[in-house]
Amino acid sequence: MSHEDFPTDDPAVVTCGLPYANGDLHVGHLRTYVGGDVYARALERLGQQTAFVSGSDMHGTPVAVNAEQEGVSPEDFALEWHERYAETFPKFNVDFDNYGHTHDETNTELTRDLVRELDKRGHVYEKEIMVAYDPVDDQYLPDRYVEGTCPYCGAHARGDECDEGCQRHLEPGEIEDPVSTITGNPAEYRKRTHKFFAVSEFADYLSDFLDRLEGTSNARNQPREWIEQGLQDWCITRDMDWGIDYPDAEGEETDLVLYVWVDAPIEYVSSTKQYTDRAGADVFDWEAAWRDDADHDGGQIVHVIGRDIIQHHTIFWPAMLHATDHVEPRAVMASGFVTLGGKGFSTSRDRAVWADEYLEEGFHPDLLRYYLATNGGFQQDVDFSWERFRERVNTELVGTIGNFLYRSLLFAHRNYDGAPEGVETASEEVTTAIDEAVADVTDAVNDYSVRDLGDAVTDLARFGNEYIQRNEPWALVDDDPDAAAQVIYDCVQIAKAIAVLFEPIAPDTCERLWNQLGEDGSVHDVTVGAATESPAGAFEEPGELFEKIPEERVEELNEKLEERVAEATDEDTADADEDADTADDGTADESGESAASDLEPLAEERIGFEEFEDLDLRVGRIVSAEGIEGADKLVRLEVDLGIETRQIVAGIKQLHDLESLPGTRVIVLANLERAELFGVESNGMVLAAGEGADLLTTHGDAAPGTQVK
């Protein structure tokens, strides 16, 4: 693997975190998969050989529990969901080169081979540990069958993760005050022999790896704290029947199964191998991409995940790869969560926009792809609301991109039957604008920013609208026909460039645009070089590519959502917070969806209005943001408060893309006493909501220094 700018001569693999085969997909899940698809397509536009792979995560306790509740086998239960996912992703133009699952033969064999290699090289050992046991039900309890108190932060936690507090991975036996989730009985700890992967041996390697790792900053910053605190060896077996049996060094199976997080990331390799098996090594060689040994230099591995599974992809997984002569990931892109109208998704209360529901409402998938890809930085939390969705579609897709394409191509068709003949090439001004857009797209890929990729195209369309309006070809047709022809040729060239550069975000729409332009072949098969190639020439009358969403449509959609939520809440209020789905138990699932809504109770003690008036709350504008050296969470902000610029220290380093913060409006408690944090003076406090540090801002453009009342 190299760290040269894309495109490189090495094969690239883009993966998405495996969806857990346990429930329906909604727009919260789709953010990661759309983001991965956009990025993989953009790499291909640059000419990078790329495989885009994923698969369904079939194993683990929730699958076994839900299968038992439905009276079917875990395999049948998980396979049904796997098949639904495989049908759903293409409907949103998420085009995996291979989509497998963790229980298939390829992944089972590769997992066993890799674990045997870890064992053979001395990285696995046996150890007696304390495992939760239900004395009433007379059974050992895998981690997801246990709840209790996190030993590190004191929050309520699952047996394998402090999902409501510090989000730290927990080993069997660590959780305090354990309770069986099956029976509700208090659990006790008993000794059991399990297998451990010696992750602690790789602390120095992992520290260096994080220095090299590209992608989003949260994927680098978050795991450093765990390394600094001291890595604990990782229990890689569990007491349950559903999963891949642990193979010993001689290939014999044991009565333990592998922890789901061992076989889940190996599916990335397995899915790539299946792609090679189907397409041929001349199309894509999986070993050239994944192996790092005497015969292979390794490829470019990019993982696109939800931020709740950063630890697995930046600690456990690279250690496994390094220990078995596989290439380490080049980049990890960890997305923020998605909320709905400012609130968490709740599957038990049916408070979600489901993937199938979105399509049934008649909306094109490219509209949602654009919204999810460009609505905020990838690592930031984003909010989905039908109002904002309508606004982005009507303003940017219809008003900017669609407006330019339709008006310019319609004029070209009616006056020239397409791109005007006799014009040899686009003008220097337009060629420069397209070259700049191509450069912006290339930079976006190398900066791992799907938002910047979309912005590059919107900016080009905005330039196109300004260009045609400024040159007024309709006024030149009679007086200066050569000048008019040049302007329209330029506009057709811009339209062709948009079709090429916007394809990663709006693939179906850009294919229709490509056909409207009369171009040969498919836009999916061209690279960015096609953006400046001469237009094909004649084409038929174009149609409008985007339609406005009326305001009353949003009202209708909101009413439907409110009715569904009310109905679901009335039907099952008592059980609403006990949904077995991973989206409503205070957790964030493997696709990066937001946890639902366990909120702190409102304070009983009230304060007087005079006390509130003592708080000097001001609108501020972030001027600069930089991490404080040696501090995992702290950032030094320069904030313009209108009257003066303040230095403020905030604990948001792991939760925000620092490069995107300048220009952001925030709310500042200006009369807070000065404090010194990590040797840096802080003169005020920036206000944020929740564990995700959702920065409080203003709806309009209130000037810095404006008082909040």
Automatic annotation (TrEMBL):
It is found in: Cytoplasm. Is required not only for elongation of protein synthesis but also for the initiation of all mRNA translation through initiator tRNA(fMet) aminoacylation. Binds 1 zinc ion per subunit. It comes from Halopenitus malekzadehii. ATP binds at residue 347. A motif ('HIGH' region) lies at residues 19-29. Residues 611-709 form the TRNA-binding domain. It catalyses: tRNA(Met) + L-methionine + ATP = L-methionyl-tRNA(Met) + AMP + diphosphate. GO terms for molecular function: ATP binding; metal ion binding; methionine-tRNA ligase activity; tRNA binding. Gene3D superfamilies: HUPs (3.40.50.620), Isoleucyl-tRNA Synthetase, Domain 1 (1.10.730.10), Methionyl-tRNA synthetase, Zn-domain (2.20.28.20), Nucleic acid-binding proteins (2.40.50.140). Zn(2+) binds at residues 150, 153, 162, 166. Homodimer. Residues 556-601 are annotated as: Disordered. Belongs to the class-I aminoacyl-tRNA synthetase family. MetG type 1 subfamily. The lineage of its organism: Archaea, Methanobacteriati, Methanobacteriota, Stenosarchaea group, Halobacteria. Keywords: Aminoacyl-tRNA synthetase, ATP-binding, Cytoplasm, Ligase, Metal-binding, Nucleotide-binding, Protein biosynthesis, RNA-binding, tRNA-binding, Zinc. This is Methionine--tRNA ligase. GO terms for biological process: methionyl-tRNA aminoacylation. GO terms for cellular component: aminoacyl-tRNA synthetase multienzyme complex; cytosol. Its cofactor is Zn(2+). Its EC number is 6.1.1.10. Residues 568-592 have a biased composition (Acidic residues). PANTHER family: METHIONINE--TRNA LIGASE (PTHR45765), METHIONINE--TRNA LIGASE, CYTOPLASMIC (PTHR45765:SF1).
